[in-house]
Structure formats: structure tokens, C-alpha cells
Design brief:
Helix content is 56%, strand content 14%. By secondary structure, it is α+β, with helices and mostly antiparallel strands. It folds into three domains: 2-62; 105-187; 190-297, no CATH class. Strands 1, 2, 3, 4, 7, 8, 9 and 10 form an eight-stranded antiparallel beta sheet that branches. A hairpin with a 7-residue loop joins strand 8 and strand 9 (287-288). Helix 3 packs across helix 4 and helix 7 packs antiparallel against helix 8 (169-187). It starts with a helix and ends with a strand.
């Protein structure tokens, strides 16, 4: 075994002295020169190597006896390589499996959520919204006491049912809101009182742009509930068509009405006849106590 190991060491030395080995081995009859070189290398290291060992090493180097030659590529070699790397491959496979399971689970959950949402949407269209529309319509029609109020409630009811029939849940919900707002508006009662306070105008007039010789007259009013509190209501200005929620606005009146109120205020600074109209429960519009022309403005 010692001699074998020493011969292998000779081969290893030749491998590291590649230039020398190739030059000497390429020349026939030069083994003696190579042997002497090897002997000097080992003697410099304090080792004594016999001629037989040196000859054996040179012959082994020439025959590549101790040189590893990889096996050619094959299916078995591939399997062996995979088996040798099974730890790393196993970890990679485990991560891939976990990611795939997470992706499948996420998609399954998304599908379940979509299915539940579809069921809820269908239930809203077939059960929830029909009941809400019916209840809101009953409340609005129950409060309506005038023809225009009933017509408005019936129209909103029909619009909500039409939205329901075409599967438009958003429009149907908006119809419920509109019916509820109508019912609330019909329940309201208030009077339109002409403003008569120090430092505030009770009436104004406008000169139209298209006719500088004409004047439009307005009385400034506010909505007062039976308990004395003021209401803010949506009012559309006839000048710009914009609707604003205001607590005070001006109603257009004939000049005769305007002048009568002006005389009422001029005699003692107080407007005794200060109620322009009254909105009763169940009606959409006030009942006017004075002649009016119907338009309104929100700024002056």
C-alpha cells in the first residue's frame, strides 16, 4: 500500500509538473532524464524513492491510470446527479408546491367571494329592493294629499320598478332614496314669512339684461316651522338655473304685491301681513296668500 501511494504521489507530482512531464514523455528514450528530474525533486524534499517506484509512476502517468475520466452523459448519470442534489431539489420542489397551493387557494377563495356576491346581488334584486321600494312608495303615497304629490310619488315608484325590472340595482336604490325624500318633504309643514328685521331687505328688484326698461320684483322670505325653527330648502334660481339649499331666498311677485308689502312696512317699519304662503302637510308646493309669479332667486 505504501508503494502504491508513493507511485500515486509520483503521478501527482508529474501532474503538477505538467510542462516537464509532457516534454519528457513526448520524447522516446527520455525516461531516464525524467526519472532523474523526479528523483531530484524528492531528494530536495528529503525523500528517497526507488527506481521501481519512479518507473511505475512514469508508466502510470503515461497510461493515465490514476486520472479520473468522467462518465459520458446518459440517463443514469442524470438520475445520479439528481439524487446527489436531492436535498436542494427537494427544497425547491417544496417551495413550488407551496406557491401552487397558495395560488389555487387564492383563486378558489376569489371564486367563492364572486359566487357569494352574485347570490347577494340576485337576492337584493328579487327580495330586498322590491320590499324597500314597496315600503317607500306606500309611505310617499300615504302622505300625498294633492294631485301633483300623488303623481310625483307614482312616477318615482314607476321609475324604481323599471330599474328593478332591467336589473339596475343602483338606479333602484336611488329610487328608494327619492321616494323617502318625497315622503319627508310631504310631511313638512311651514309658512313662508317675509323677512322684516332691522338691517335686512324685505324686497328687491332686478332689471333684466334684455330689457332695461322692465323690472322684476321679489319678496325675501324664509321657511318657518310651527315650532319657530327655520328650514333650509333647495331653491332653483331663475337667473342662472342653479339649485342651492338656502334658509332665505326671494320669490318673484307682481309689482302690486311688492308695493302693498312696501306700504305695509313703510307706515310703522313692521310688516303686519308677513305670510306670503303656507306649505301644508301632504302637499308639494305652498298655498299662496298673496299673488306671486312663481320664480325665485337665491342671491341679490
Amino acid at each position: 500500500m505504501d508503494e502504491l501511494m508513493l507511485a500515486m504521489d509520483v503521478v501527482d507530482t508529474l501532474r503538477h509538473q505538467e510542462a516537464v512531464a509532457l516534454r519528457e514523455l513526448a520524447q522516446d528514450g527520455r525516461d531516464e532524464n525524467l526519472k532523474e528530474r523526479l528523483r531530484s525533486i524528492y531528494e530536495s524534499q528529503g525523500l528517497e524513492v526507488s527506481d521501481r517506484i519512479l518507473d511505475e509512476g512514469i508508466r502510470a502517468r503515461r497510461e493515465s491510470r490514476f486520472t479520473y475520466t468522467p462518465t459520458p452523459p446518459s440517463f443514469k448519470r442524470t438520475l445520479a446527479g439528481l439524487w446527489g442534489r436531492r436535498g436542494t431539489i427537494g427544497k425547491v420542489v417544496a417551495v413550488v408546491v407551496l406557491l401552487a397551493a397558495a395560488w389555487i387557494g387564492w383563486n378558489a377563495w376569489q371564486g367563492y367571494q364572486a359566487e357569494q356576491a352574485a347570490i347577494a346581488a340576485q337576492r337584493e334584486l328579487t327580495e330586498v329592493l322590491p320590499n324597500r321600494i314597496a315600503a317607500a312608495a306606500d309611505a310617499a303615497l300615504g302622505e300625498a294629499k294633492t294631485d301633483d304629490a300623488r303623481e310625483r310619488a307614482e312616477q318615482l315608484h314607476a321609475d324604481a320598478l323599471a330599474a328593478l325590472s332591467r336589473g339596475d340595482a343602483e338606479a333602484a336604490r336611488a329610487g328608494v332614496i327619492a321616494l323617502n325624500r318625497l315622503a319627508d318633504a310631504l310631511r313638512e309643514t311651514y309658512v313662508l314669512r317675509i323677512v322684516s328685521r332691522p338691517g335686512e331687505m324685505s324686497g328687491v328688484y332686478r332689471i333684466p339684461d334684455i330689457n332695461s326698461d322692465a323690472r322684476n320684483y321679489y319678496l325675501v322670505v324664509e321657511a318657518v316651522k310651527p315650532d319657530g325653527t327655520l328650514l333650509s330648502l333647495p331653491v332653483t334660481s331663475e337667473e342662472d338655473g342653479k339649485t342651492k339649499v338656502v334658509s332665505k331666498w326671494a320669490v318673484r311677485v307682481p309689482k302690486q304685491t311688492y308695493d302693498a308689502v312696501a306700504r305695509d312696512k313703510t307706515d310703522d317699519g313692521i310688516i303686519q301681513n308677513n305670510i306670503l304662503g303656507e306649505k301644508q302637510r301632504g302637499s308639494l308646493e305652498p298655498t299662496w296668500r298673496m299673488n306671486v309669479m312663481g320664480g325665485a332667486i337665491t342671491e341679490w
